[in-house]
Structure formats: structure tokens, C-alpha cells
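Internal QA ticket QA-208
Title: Verify multi-chain structure generation after dependency bump
Assignee: T.L.

Test input:
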Amino acid sequence: MSFELTKSYLEDLSHAIERQDVQSVKLLTEAIHPADIAEILDRLGEYEANFVYGVLPEEVAAETLTHLDEDVLERVLEDLSAEQIADYVDILETDDAADVIAELPDDQQAEVISQLEDKSHSSDISDLLGYEEDSAGGLMAKEFIAVNINWPVNRCVIHMRKQAQDIDKVYSIYVIDDNSELKGTLSLKSMLFASPNSPISEIYMDGVISVEADASNEEVAKIMEKYDLVVLPVVDDKNRLIGRITIDDVIDVIKEEAEKDYQMASGLSDKVESHDSVWSMSKARLPWLLIGMVGGVLGAEVIAKYESQIQLKPELAYFIPLVAAMGGNVGVQSSAIVVQGLANNSIVFRGILGRIGKETLVALFNGLICASVIFGYNFIVGNEQSLAWTVSLALFSVIIFAAIAGTFIPLVLDKYKIDPALATGPFITTVNDVLGLFIYFLIGTIMYGI
Amino acid sequence: MSFELTKSYLEDLSHAIERQDVQSVKLLTEAIHPADIAEILDRLGEYEANFVYGVLPEEVAAETLTHLDEDVLERVLEDLSAEQIADYVDILETDDAADVIAELPDDQQAEVISQLEDKSHSSDISDLLGYEEDSAGGLMAKEFIAVNINWPVNRCVIHMRKQAQDIDKVYSIYVIDDNSELKGTLSLKSMLFASPNSPISEIYMDGVISVEADASNEEVAKIMEKYDLVVLPVVDDKNRLIGRITIDDVIDVIKEEAEKDYQMASGLSDKVESHDSVWSMSKARLPWLLIGMVGGVLGAEVIAKYESQIQLKPELAYFIPLVAAMGGNVGVQSSAIVVQGLANNSIVFRGILGRIGKETLVALFNGLICASVIFGYNFIVGNEQSLAWTVSLALFSVIIFAAIAGTFIPLVLDKYKIDPALATGPFITTVNDVLGLFIYFLIGTIMYGI
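Actual output:
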């Protein structure tokens, strides 16, 4: 059952492909789960991947499509005719089928859909393609089991037998009325216990959490997470059942949300992956770098104002990087906690003032420790007392200011409906760099009396 | 169905509690989902939350426990007697029940378990409490439907009717042999189609992905994500079926993994939440701050070496923060992409050299743009040519070095099985700060000929 992708396995496979040895490739890929096949294809070159894909049994080939990374999927599809794609799509569930077709160029999409054998399948897929990719409609599948509230249990079983042909796994049995309006769910338990003639209306569970088709991805994820749902029914604007979303399709949404914050904190303005082009990689990074440059230039202006003091006491320059860096570090730490708290909804209703008060306490403590450590360092290496006091006092002040700014800025952004994650990463670092330098030289001129 | 927690709702509730108006509180909390009740309790003070909890119907009160944040759960449990807790735990599924009991002090755990009415429930829970919290055993529930491979279909139905009493939702029907060994699954579809006397052995699906009870949380998450599973059976070391894990319990694990990287990048060494104590907040941040200080001190040493040059040309000091900050920013950007690529397994087998080559290209491009921009700035404000060339050349070099270091360090850490996320955040910033200063002054002394 469990397959581990090793270097030697890949070498064996590559050699077999080189020899054009179809039989060996078939043997090597036999009884391997489509998710693992997808991983193998991801590790092979284009020619090799297409060779392996070509020898897969139809069912496995179809399922493999749903597990491939976007770029590999594109390459594999390019190598297939519309007929072949249609054969595979015929096997897939509607949501996966729509996802595969969405990857094709527009003209080929129509061609594949027209070639599908099962006409109700093809109309379901066309339907799904009409929804925004990032909405409940774009996530849902058309395969679900629904029974009429007015039927008796035995009619349900007959009906389910018919519907179940198309459905791999039954997560919920939905109860609808004559207008297809969603009324509730029927548990397998109550079905197993009920007598064949009892009406559904007497044994079904009233009320079920659902979303409308135009709800956003994030909304779907939030609802499924909050209510611990494995499957979520989707309705149209008249509350008619039109599909269902299973949680496995939502996990990617949840992960992407978490990763978005990480990328912001790392100074990436776009989702970039390691296989993206050099140009899109540059584009995602330049905005933050330029903001960082603005900060650096402002820092230069601050330092220029104190040029004569530096000429007099050049040792003041020693600790410029320390003070600037610490301000940035503390600011990012504080803002990251706020951003995560906001994402998890754990600080919405609690007061801004309380939050800042607490951050200040933490900063007082950390500031005291850091200031003492650097004072100790300056004492040991024998630097002037004035310098030691300047650095420690500045560091202490900077840590407190940076913590307050790091807490305050994301909260304010959030209040004005701007993504608070913007406040992490280079932005807060830059603000604190400049602020830190200013404080440092101010204290320096006072301590030295220059 | 959908409930929105508003300020005015909370005010109404608070007033009703103040008046000790049980009837109004009951009305206000009627027909609200336990997940929403949990959110309400989270927003109330201790006394208020316990008041509301006290008027909830037994079923709702029990389910609410499974949705509460750890700190609120603790407060609510403190207010309850062992008998009351036992009443609620009797209603919960085994995995949720074990999670609630695990929050109690040791002596109370035994008391609650002894008070449970359903003895098989209580032995299941004790069993679950024996597993590591962060393992498959700690995640699984004991409720599952298993049928014997040697039975005919009609016997299965009778058996399922019996088992289904304890089970809220049936996700999979597992097939086991006489030794309880897991053989495969039975789809509802094949059950609906089979004649009552056909043996299970002829209609079941052979082979099913499972984990052993001592597998880690992360392993469970990886498997369920990769194979798009909604439910995963858990076996003991003899492949005997002992439980099942549903995906909703694994989502937290997946999210925490993603958030861990974010926290590392933000310079937090521990999982901290906004409601943690000042002390644990300080503790999570100090390590990185102290590392940052080491960097700052090293930076000071570098600058000290160039003291006479600064005294001669104090304008060299202007751009210390710019060069240092840009090195840090670029390094974090590069390492973040590598860390995410490693987490998503998308760069394991691809070469390190290729990765570094691509990063260098991106850096060449971004470096050229940033260097030109800052050259333009220096030209416009009328700074000396030597300074303009120094800053631009240094910036260009620093961006390239930082990109290479940011790519190389996490890849090397990963190779030696150290969490590559360590390389993001203050660590890489610090390395690049020092490197940047060194390059800057080296170029400066050459350009100025001092």
C-alpha cells in the first residue's frame, strides 16, 4: 500500500523509458496510487513523464490528472488529443473534471466537452465551468444523493441505488422538497432503523448548514473549519440544492491563507513557487525591495543630519546596524502575533488598548534584558561610558517603540479593512529602522553633549 | 441557521446575565450551533461564560466543550463537578471525550471516567488517553463500522444497525477478518446493489490506506492531504483495526504546520497566542533578539575597523542602514521560497545548483534595478560620485550574495535534517547584515582610495 519514491526507483524507471521498454514501465507503475504516480511524473522530464503517462491504465491515468501540479498537468494535457482527454474526464467526478478542463485553452474546452459520452455529466461540467474559480460554485461537485421529503424510506433506497452508481463515496443524504429546496439531512442510522414505509419527513434531521454558490473560497473554508464539517451542501439563491463541497478540496484554500501571511512577512507580494519564471519571481519581490530602499534613503537623511557628530565621535556609527535591526526584529515579532490573532479571530472583540498595554510590558522586559546585555558588552570591550549609555538607552527605547508600532499598525490597517499582514515584513522593518536611527542619534547627542 | 455574533447581541446577553434572567439567556442562546456558543463564551468574562454554560441543554453543553479554546475550556471545566462532566462526556464521541478529559487534572480524570455510565465508552476513552497526544492514536476515535469478510451482506446490515447506534456519521464501512485485521472497505454502493446472500469477500474493495497508531500527527496530515482522504483507518502493529481519524481533526495540524513557518520567519521561537502570559511571550522572542544582537555586535566590529575612513568621509555612514537592510530583505525573500518549496515537497529532487542559478538570475535583475534607482537618487541629491558608485556597487553585490545565502542555507539545513525555517527570519537577516557591511566598506575604501 505505502509507496516510497526512491532515487533507485526513479533510475530504474528512467532506464526502462530509455530502452522504450513498455513492459517494464508498466510493471514498475503497477498498483501504485494515482497520487504517487503524480509525484513520479513531477520528478521526470517532459518526455519521460509523457511516456509513463501513456502506458497507465485508463482509470489510473484519469485519477492521476487530479493530483498533478498545474505545470505538469499542462504538459501532460498538451500531449493528449481531445478524444483522449474526454475519455479520462468521463471517468472523473464533476468537480475534478471541471478543474482539468479549466486548464485547457478555450477552443479545446468546447471540443472536449462535446466529445463526452455521458451527456448529463457533460452538462454538469459545463455548469460548473460557469462559476468563479474562487467560489463555492467553483469548488463544488454535482454528485450528491438527494431524496424527497415526501417519500417513504423504501422508495429512498431504490432511488439511492440509482444515484449511487455515479457516486464514489456517500457522505450525506440530503432531503429536499418538491421544489428542490434543501430541507435537511437523513442519517444512515435513521435509515437503517426505520421501517420501509415510514415517511422521510418523520425521520430526517431538520436544518443543515449550507452556502450559496457565490460564497468565496475563504468563506467556505471558514464555515467548514468552524463547524467541523466534512461535506457542505451548496444552494442557489432560492435555497435549491445544486452541489456539495468535500473538505479535501478546501484544505488547499486553508493552507494558502496561512501561506499568504508567511509570504507577506517574507516580503513577497505575490504567490511565487520555486518553479515560477525568473520574471514573475522578480516582480513579486521588487515592490518590497523598493519600499526597503525608501526606508534606507530616509535613514541616510537622518544620519546626514548628524554628520558632524559622527565626524567628532565616529564610534557612534558602530551601532547603527544594531539599533536599526533590533527595531525591525521587534516590530515584526509584535505584528506577527497580531496578524495571526486577527486571522484566527481571537482578538477581534478584545480591546486595542489592552493589547498594546500587554505588548509594552513584554517590550519593557525584553528591552531591559537586551539593553543590559549590550551594556555588558560595551563594558567588557572597554568602550566609552557615553557610548555604552547611548546604545543601551537607545536600544531600550527602540524596542518599546517598535513593539507599540508593530501592534498598532496592523490593528489600524485591519480596522480600515486593509490586510493587516501588509504591516509585517519590510514595511514595519523600514518604519522602525528610521525611527530607531532617530532615537539613537538624539540620545547620542545628549549623552555626548555634542 | 447562520448566526452572526454582533456587539448588540453580546450586550443583550450581558444585560440578561446581570439581571440573572435565566429565561432570556435561554431564549438568546436557543437553536444556536455549539460552535457559535463556543465563540460567544470566548467573548464573555468568566462569570458570564459560566452562567450561560449553566443554562444550556445537556446535548448542546456537551458539544460546546469540543469547540472551546483551551483556556476557556479549562475555566468552564473548573466550574463543573465530576458528575456533570461525566454526563457530558457520555454524550461525546470517544475522540472528543478523550480530548476533554485530557484537560482535567489527573485525579479528576480517573473520577470522571469512573462515573461514566456506558462502560464500553469509558474503556474506549481510557484506551485513547494512553496514546501520545501528537500521534495517530491521539487523534483517532473508536467509533467505526467494521464488518467481517466472511459474512453475507444481510448479516452486515443487521450488524451495522447495531453499531450505528453509537455513530453519528458513517464515512466508511471497514472490512476485517476473524483476527480483526483490516482487509479493505465496503462501499455503500456495492452494498445497495448486492443480493442479501452474497458474501462480503466478493464485493469488498481490497486494500485501503491506513496508519499505525504511533504515526506522528504530521505523518497523518501528509497522508490524508496527499491521498485526498476524508477518513483514515488506524491499525495496531499487527494491522488490526483500532480506530479512525476524520479530516476535521487534522486541519488544525495542517494549519499549525503552516503557521510554524510564519512564526519562525517572524522571529518567534515558540507558538505564542495573543492571550498568552507576558512571560511566555517574552521567552518566545528573546532567543531571536539575542541572535540579532550578536549580529549587531559583529556589525559594530566591522564598522570599527573602518573608523578612520568614516572620520575622513562621514557620508559613508549614511548608507549603512540601507545596505544592511537590503541584504536582510533579499535573504528572507529567497529563503522563504525555498522553505515553502521544501514544505510542499516541490524541490526535493531538483538540484541545488539549478535552484541557486535561478535565484542568482533573479538577484542580478533585481540588483540592477535597485542599484540604478539608488544611483539616480544620489545623482539627484548631488552626492559625490565616489559615494554614488560605492552605494550602487555594494547594493548590487549584497543583493546577489544575500540571494545565494538565502537559498543555500535552508537547503543545507534541510540536508542535515534541521528545520530549514530556522534560516528565515532574524538568522538570515543577521548573516546578511554583517556580510553587507563588509562588502560596503570594502568597496568604499577602494572607490575613495582611502
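Spot checks passed. The longest strand of chain A covers residues 241-246.
Status: verified.
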